[in-house]
Amino acid sequence: MSLINIEIDEAAIAALAAAPSVKRDMRARGRRVVQAAQTTAPVDTGEYRDSIHLEDGDEDGEVLVVASADHSIYVEHGTRQPGHPAHHTLTNALDAAGGDT
Fold this sequence. Notes:
Structural class: mainly alpha
Radius of gyration: 18 Å
Helix content: 40-55%
InterPro entries: HK97-gp10_tail
Protein name: HK97 gp10 family phage protein
Number of helices: 5
Number of domains: 1
Number of strands: 2
Strand order of the largest sheet: 1-2
Shape: elongated
Order of helices and strands: HHHEEHH
Largest sheet: 2 strands, antiparallel
């Protein structure tokens, strides 16, 4: 039986995440998630829907889809009170846009 030795070039992988083409692709994917989330968000006043936006993450090429309204956590995950179910808007938008959770 032969052994195979694999060496991972972590610097090359880190550089790939910072490549302009990868950053453009990540932002395009993020915009699709934002669009899907805003389209399907429950609307009372519109504050939650309008707060959904894209942000750059840290230096490793991360892109974040954020709902910044103060009550976003309750819209996304619901509450124990009757009439306030979880909507899972951001999770469902990620799935609809072809992303991975």
